[in-house]
User: Fold this.
Amino acid sequence: MISQTKETIGEFECVVLKSERCDQPKAAVILCHGFGAPGTDLVAIGMHMHQQNPKLKDVVFVFPAAPIQMDPLFDARAWWMIDIEKIQQMMMQGETRELAKESPELLPTRRNELSGLIDLCRVDFKLAPNQIVIGGFSQGAMLTTDVAIHYSEPLGGLIIWSGALINETIWLERIQNQHPLKIVQSHGRLDPILPMAGAEALRDRLVRHSHDVRFCEFQGQHAIPMEATDLAIQLIEETIE
Assistant:
């Protein structure tokens, strides 16, 4: 039986999934939703991953809600704001966003807050850094990539679902200096929101500097397919072995 509770951890309101029989977690997985989604957006995926694999019974899942509330009615949230109208116009005109040069003003703040959440999870669940896996979808994937390459110690793994290369100058320096990470990355060939080129650019830079990237390219758009969750499960399993 899996319990689902709402808890305040550091700066975030979180949903926490945990087996009722788990007294001492062997790992924690922190998953961050995408832009415009509710804080609970990835909970169903976490529940599916938990239920489909008995090996994850001793893993706790944490789903923080982004601090910026865009629409209280639908609980639409963001880690930082983006110009939606400009993006829609570019898509209509067939133009590609140059994300690599973008450096969101709130990114350092969110990085510090999420790093604080990791620290608290380590204390609360009595876990080492290599027992923590972080990841997310879209904007949540960008944020957790930023956190993973900046964190003071190498984490157990990073899950990048439909992310992209941003903040290129700083990221390249951190990618070179961070201890090699185990990474699962997935991206749709037909993604109209974050084109494949941005995902490939991130992958290539990570691989070039000895990070272990398992890249899942799928025939789809901005989504998380089953093969991407399966790879994530494998990564989490390695963390608890």
About this structure: The beta strands are 2-9, 12-19, 27-32, 59-64, 68-71, 76-78, 132-137, 157-161, 182-188, 212-218. The chain has seven helices and ten strands. The longest strand covers residues 2-9.
